[in-house]
Structures are given as C-alpha cells and as structure tokens.
Design a protein that fits this description.
Blueprint: E1 2-5, E2 16-19, E3 30-39, H1 41-47, E4 66-74, E5 85-90, E6 98-106, H2 113-116, H3 120-133, E7 140-144, H4 149-160, E8 164-168, H5 174-179, E9 183-185, H6 191-198, E10 205-208, H7 215-222, E11 228-230, H8 236-239, E12 242-243, H9 251-266, E13 274-279, H10 283-292, E14 298-302
Parallel strand pairs: 7-8, 7-10, 8-9, 10-11, 11-12, 13-14
Antiparallel strand pairs: 1-2, 3-4, 3-6, 3-14, 4-5, 5-6
Helix pairs in contact: 3-4
Amino acid sequence: MHAVVFEEFGGPEVLRTQDVAEPHAGPGEVRVSVRAAGVNPIDFKIRRGWTQGFIDVTFPATPGLEVAGVVDEVGAGAEFAIGDEVVGWSTTGSYAEHAVVGNVVPKPAGVSWEQAVGLPVAGETAQRVLDELGIKDGETLLLHGAAGGVGSIAVQLATAAGATVIGTASPVNHDFLREIGAIPVAYGDGLLDRVREAAPQGIDAVFDAAGQGGLEESIELRGGTDRIVTIADMQAGALGVAVSAASSASPEEIGAGLSKQLQAAADGNLTVRVAETFALSDAAKAQELSESGHAQGKVVVLL
C-alpha cells in the first residue's frame, strides 16, 4: 500500500510516499480503507523529534493520529462490520491507504470525511480544557487562537454551555468567529485594551490554543495564573501557567464524546472548519501549512 513515511527527524522534506506492507487488525481493532487523515500540530512535533520520551518514534514511521474511513478488516471482538464508515484514532499512522484503529466510533451519514476527521483530536482537546477550566453558564472565556481547529470547536462548546467567548484571531477570521458565536479581537500590540473593551465584565478563564503569545496579558487580565490553561505555549512553565497535554478519560468516555460531537455536526449544531485538503503525495505541504500556524481551520489529507 502507499503510505507517507519518514526515517529521520527534520523538516517537511523528510516525508516521502512509498510502498509499505499493509497493517492488519488485532483483537478489538479494525482496519480501515482511509478516506481522510487529520493533520495536527503534534504530527510535525513528532516529525522533528520534539516528543521523544513522551511519544517515541521507531523508524520508518508513518504520521497521523486521526483517521476516517471504511472498515475493510475486523479483528476478534471488534463490534464493527466490513463496510462500516468509522472515525477514530490510528495506531499505525493515518497518512496511508490503510490504517488500524483501536478507539473508533461510527461516522454519521450527514458528516463529510474531512469534517469527521477534524473532530477526534480537536474535539477531545477542546472539551478536556473547558472541563479543566470549569467553564460555567454566564462566565466569560478568553480564547487565544479561536479560529483554529481546536479553538473553533472550543468556541462552540463554550457558547453552548452558556459562556461568552472573547476570541483572539487575525482580522481575516473575525467574520467566521462571529458566525460561530465568539466576540473577535485582534491579537498583537494593544491586546489588553481590546479585551477589556470587549469584556468590561472581566475574564473568568483563559484557554490558549495558539501558543503564540498572550499568556502574560492573560495573567494580567486574570490577576494571576488561576484558571489559565494552554495546549501550545512552551513558555507556560516559566510563567506558572498550566499545560494540558493528555486526557485521563477512558477510551470509552473519549469515544462517547466523539460520537456526541459527530452527531452535533450531522445535525448542523457544530461547525468543523476545513482550511485546506491535500493529496497523500502532498503530505509534506499539509504539514508545512499546519506548522506555519496560519491554517484557518482543519488541515486534512484526503485519499
């Protein structure tokens, strides 16, 4: 089968497409014929070797955690049938024609492949951080990187919970943020004044999904580091800000959350913004866009 592989750490140029042996489903797993693979910041961090000791790599490696596709092989005990359309987390790398999936849920018919694959990582991350912050009805959340894959899902989950969301983003994304329920503000110089003008009632919590500055201003707005969480800023530790990196929920709980979000998307109650799609052979370009930090939504590899 065709798959994207890398055999050394480095930039996007280390990725190449080649023929590799097909993986096979083990007990409790299914193999899927991949229709869409999600591209996430963790992918380029793994490729650059930044996650060694946390997520170790054995070469040759195929990138990709998120996968949406059609079941074509069923392992013992897996509760799916050949031909089922599913979404989940790949254990063998999703930038490939076939991928083995352990934690998997059905894909609703009303959700496209690229929308579906935009939810496993972004949806779980967004809900996890909102739970860690304890966002409640009537509160005001400052969300950095609100137009990105994780940020845009978090905006919608927070507003559905009754919160007011102040979302930082470049001006080109402000109309989109208004559409999904956020009050947009531009990041950069003068951020403090703009946030205070948008939220004279004050900020109850801060979710940093951007990792591109804003934590020091967030601390000033909060009067300390309480109820500030980042998923992307490596300077957080020096500032005393909490970093959310992994879920403590069970696979069953995570799967149930994904199913709920997929159904919300099918019902038109949750928007998954797709920035751009790429062919498997252009996976390096997909990761380059993801790594730039300028993708306006989810980056997807389509097969």
